[in-house]
Amino acid sequence: MLANGDAIARLRRLLAAAREVAKDALLVPRLIESTGLSRQGVELGLARYLEHDATDDEVAALVRGVMPATSVHVILSANVFTAPLRALAVACAASSRVSVHPSRRDPVLTCALVENASDLGLVLTDATDVRAIESGEIHVYGRDETVLAVKGAAHADVRVRGHGAGMGVALVDANVAVEMAAHAIADDVVAFDQRGCCSPRVVFALGGRAKELAEALSRRLRAMEERVPRGKLDESERRESVRYRETMAFAGEVLEGAAHAVGVSRQGSTCLVPPVGRHVHVVPVASVEDARAWLRPIERFVVLVGCSDERLGRELALASHVRLSPLGRMQRLPFDGPVDLR
Amino acid sequence: MVWDATESDALHERARGFVRAFEAGAPMPESFDALATDLARFQAAHVAGYARLCAAREADPSLFRSAIDAPAVPTEAFKVSRVAAFPQPLTMATFRTSGTTLGARGTHELRRPSTYGRAALAFGQWALMQGVSPLPNTSPVLMLAPSPKELPDSSLTHMMQLFAQTFGASPRGENDYFIRDGVLELAELDARVAEALVAKTPILLLGTSFAFVHLLDAVEDAGFRLPQGSRVMQTGGFKGKSREVDATELRKELSRALGVEPHAIVSEYGMTELSSQFYEGTLQSESLPMGVYVEPPWARVVPVHPETLAPVADGEEGIARIEDLMNVDSAFAVLAADRVRRVPGGFDLLGRWPGAAPRGCSIAVDEILGAGLAEA
After folding, report:
1. What is the torsional sign of CA B120, B123, B127, B128?
2. Would you tell me which residues 24-63 of chain B have a C-beta closer than 8 angstroms to some C-beta of chain A?
3. What's the confidence (pLDDT) of residue A102?
4. Residue B274: is its pLDDT beyond 60?
5. B225 vs chain A: nearest CA distance in angstroms?
6. Where are the domains of chain A?
7. Ranges under pLDDT 50 in chain A
8. What is the CATH number of domain A4-163?
9. Nearest beta carbon to residue B104 from set A240, A250, A271
10. Which residue in A has a C-alpha nearest to residue B304's C-alpha?
């Protein structure tokens, strides 16, 4: 168990380690390989979205928000490559004894952080049998089936905190300049090629400007492709991309670039979620209530609502666990606890 | 373009010409491509979404020379958009897919369901009813499925009802269906089978794969013998509604439990978005192997590359692009989500593409849909 001051100091050391990691050019090729992102995508992630510059207030809030535990075992199964910093911070704030099992597919940043932190209470482990953990907590970050499997296998005395997969949605109200909104949303989409649970996949457009917004967003995504090219999509992502494009070409309109697609649905359309990899589904709505109705079948997957108007954002966020963020900062949430509060 | 039923009716007649020729054992009245391209032009003129799809793919319907020139409509489009050439008040039958998390159900509206019925009966008779005396019309047709009253918008239930009314002896309406409120009514089915055993009349038992699994689980090792000469048609997947059983294993288990020869257990492949069905041809010819689905002359299954949507070579896996001349007023070419492969005599159905483990924590489309299936 850690006193607040000790926990804050520990997190400060972890953030300092993250700053060093972000400067390590040798990591970039390995991250390109493990994440599938382009070089520029990895560099953008390290420079802009790895939260090594968290404020004192954020760190203090994070420490205040965690429940102390005798030990924490962190399982990182599926997450964007910068996410281990927040996961380790939450665990290190909760307990002096933290073990972490990195993602098999994407272990690079986790290993680098642990190595640079030089924290005797923070160790890597390759142990996979959660039944062997008899006390403390398990924090698992992964697909829903992974979270369920860990919960099912864990010892009865062990508390499992699961953080599953999710998605972000954005709302563009009638008072926001379309170009400005498009630029901000494109920033949120390009980060991690939309593979994060905060990434906006669906954008609701109020005020009869869906087409205008979609065109601006498509232009912006095309321009950003020059600066931050999309990385590799795997086979299933490419298949889903084709189906989404064909579906929207029939059911509405699709504005396509070499590395993005913006679908514009028709008013009153039913729920459709586009695949990851810079695909955005723009839905025209007459009111926030319409947007809520559209979202209802998938509300449990929504982690974050991005909106420039906090009041409207809160109206759209169907549950209290849904975080709110201004547009353009959906991938840079306050470093005050887990991203997924479900 | 203003709707005029005359053009649609003429296309229906041409489509039915294929069915009539098939039933008569005569040559087809025209080439598949001739009707297919006319259907594509008609649909591009009257289905706004199809016109948009053609425009997006720079496919000019006036230049279509063969069916493959026309873009296929993904099955997802039936969930988010109306796929119909005619005004909604003219809809005579509406079929819907089962639900998913996303809420939307694929909807297929028919203006002339009799075209669907003619085709379904003709090819169903070919696949299920011929070659085994004393059928047709002396034996009962029983369904391991909910009745049309319980599932009025299921195309499968509608097809089964057509089969029961046309092929079955003394159909008993609701009492020919043995899934009620999701429960297998084994005792009632047992009584009907007992009647047939006494009368020594074979039966045709139609059902979904998961219903047959429930039947197998219910009877366990005891078995559930059907009268000699009986046949079974099983269709569809499991959709989280029963344990999953490999197709070969299911056939083996059904053969053992029901006392039916393996070749008399015929798999059907169909979907709400189509008006035609595909069957294993095992009752027709011993040269047609199990697991190979046969098309009627009015439908084709073309495996296409999942990214380019271009046809792949025979023997290679691709996504099923299904060209169905009976889909006169909706989409003659449908892009299904199933993986298929051309083989001698027909096509193999290989299931859905295995999904790679997604990177990151963004929810995958499959996960969203999968959650729905598990809840269905």
Report:
1. positive
2. 49-50, 52-53, 56-57
3. 93
4. yes
5. 40
6. 4-163, 167-326
7. none
8. 3.40.605.10
9. A271
10. A239
pLDDT attached to residue B365 = 74
**Residues 68..87 of A with a Cβ closer than 8 Å to B: which?**
78-80, 83
Residue B238 clears pLDDT 60, i.e. is over it: no
pLDDT of residue B252: 93
Is the pLDDT confidence value at B132 over 60?
no
**pTM of this prediction?**
0.92
How many beta carbons lie within 10 A of that of residue B221, not counting itself? 6
- Split at pLDDT 50, 70, 90, the class of B101 is low
**Architecture label for domain A167-326:** 3-Layer(aba) Sandwich (3.40)
Residue of A nearest to B48 (CA): A250
Size of interface A-B (CB pairs under 8 A): 150
What are the φ/ψ torsions at residue B235 (nearest 5 degrees)? Answer: -145, 160
Q: Helices marked H in chain B — which ranges?
A: 5-24, 32-46, 48-56, 77-80, 113-124, 155-167, 186-199, 209-219, 247-258, 365-375
What gap in Å lies between CA A128 and CA A115, rounded to an integer? Answer: 20
How far is residue B371's CA from residue B84's CA, in Å, rounded to a whole number? Answer: 29
Residues 244-283, chain A, touching B (beta carbon < 8 A):
244, 246-247, 249-254, 265-266, 269-276
Q: Which residues pair with A306 in a beta bridge?
A: A170, A325
pLDDT for A194 = 95
Which of A192, A250, A297 comes nearest B50 by C-beta?
A250
Please tell me which residue of chain B has the smallest CA distance to A304. Answer: B362
**Which residues of B fall within a CB distance of 8 Å from A279?**
none
**Are A282 and A248 in contact, with CB atoms under 8 Å apart?**
no
Q: What is the reported pLDDT for B375?
A: 33
- Record: contact B358-A201, CB cut-off 8 A: no
- Do the Cβ atoms of A106 and B71 come within 8 Å? no
Residue B374: the pLDDT is: 36
User: Residue A200: closest CA among chain B residues belongs to which residue?
Assistant: B362
- Is any Cβ of chain A less than 8 angstroms from the Cβ of B76? yes
Query: What is the predicted pLDDT for the residue at B358?
Result: 65
**Which chain B residue shows the shortest CA-CA distance from A35?**
B359
Average pLDDT, chain B: 90
Q: Do B362 and A266 touch (CB under 8 A)?
A: no
